[in-house]
Amino acid sequence: MQVSKRKVGLAFIILGIIFFLAFQIFHPQIITLLESSISADGEITPGGVRQLNYVFYIFTGLLVLSGYGLIKAEDESWRQRMVRIFFSDPVFGISDVRPSPRFMLIASTVIGLFLIIHIRLYDPSSQIFEVLYLEDGIFESLTPILMLAAVLLIGLAIPRLRRDPQFINIRNLITVIYLFLMLAFLLNAMEEISWGQRIFGWETPQTFEGNIQNETNLHNYFNQYYLLFYRLLVFFPIFIFIAIWLEMKERYLDFSRLVLPHPSMIGLSLLIAVVSLVWFKSQELLEEMFAVFFMFYSFRIFNCFRVRGKSAELGQEQREQSEKESVEAAG
């Protein structure tokens, strides 16, 4: 017998409520059990308790949200609308495009999960981790490399945007926004490599002496504000929710589709929010996830205009061929 999505969704919601109530009632006993079973020193710090609480609330929230989604999925029109919003990209102008939004959703989320898992399993005594985490090694270089890739992709998209007749009314505004993003990505990449000092190894100029790492960069003067910034990343998915809302309401579509992240990036954005809430002191992890997010963001924008340009060229060739055949037929 096939169980309906509505019943499964309702079961998820009930389980979420039960888990939430049980966690509140038996919280002291749960902490005592965890201290005796998984803590090496038999004690969980207040910070560890907060992290446990955050993880549990996120889990129960996702459980209830999944249940609500399953219930709504019984509505065919609502399901089709969600498929259109998350798994299609109207900017492309064609339905079949590669890589698809579905692939972008899966790939970005899996990469985000991999980054979280690998940093949580970090073992300084492991030879594998020693290779991965060498000074200026693979993972330390990931952020500037991906940010420079994002700069290049946005830069390649701008000329295509300006040649696209559909966006002629907003192309100047979008160009300014893209140029600002390129500047922000470039500054981030150059700050990460201390403007080349970490590659070429020059002596730190006297002007920059005294910052925390004694390197040629500005961001180390503001490290005391970083923890606040990383905590605020818990609100990062708001940009995705705004994009979804505007798509559902069919408002400011050209602007939202060209500037806001595509809804298929929701998985990685939620992971960034979780890390900022639970492990907000994992600075390198958040920076890597942020860089991955904007690399996907920039690639999607570039790919949109690349596909649109090819589609326009193909359409022009077809029109010219049709006109040529008409002239020959008339002759």
Give the overall form.
Answer: flat
Return the average pLDDT rounded to an integer: 80
As for the number of domains, it is: 2
Major sheet, described briefly? none
The helix count comes to 14
Q: How helix-rich are the residues, as a percent range?
A: over 70%
The count of DSSP E runs of length 2 or more, i.e. the number of strands, is 0
What is the first-to-last residue Cα distance? 68 Å
Could you spell the SSE succession in H and E letters? HHHHHHHHHHHHHH
Cα-atom radius of gyration: 25 Å
Q: Structural class of the helix and strand makeup?
A: mainly alpha
Structure write-up:
The protein is built from 14 helices and no strands. The longest helix is centred in the C-terminal third of the chain and has 48 residues, at 283-330. Helix 5 (101-120) runs parallel beside helix 13 and helix 13 packs antiparallel against helix 14 (283-330). By secondary structure, the protein is mainly α. The mean pLDDT is 80. The protein has two domains: 1-74; 95-313, no CATH class. It is 72% helix and 0% strand. It has helices at residues 5-25, 27-37, 46-72, 76-87, 101-120, 127-132, 138-163, 171-192, 197-200, 223-232, 238-249, 253-259, 266-278, 283-330.
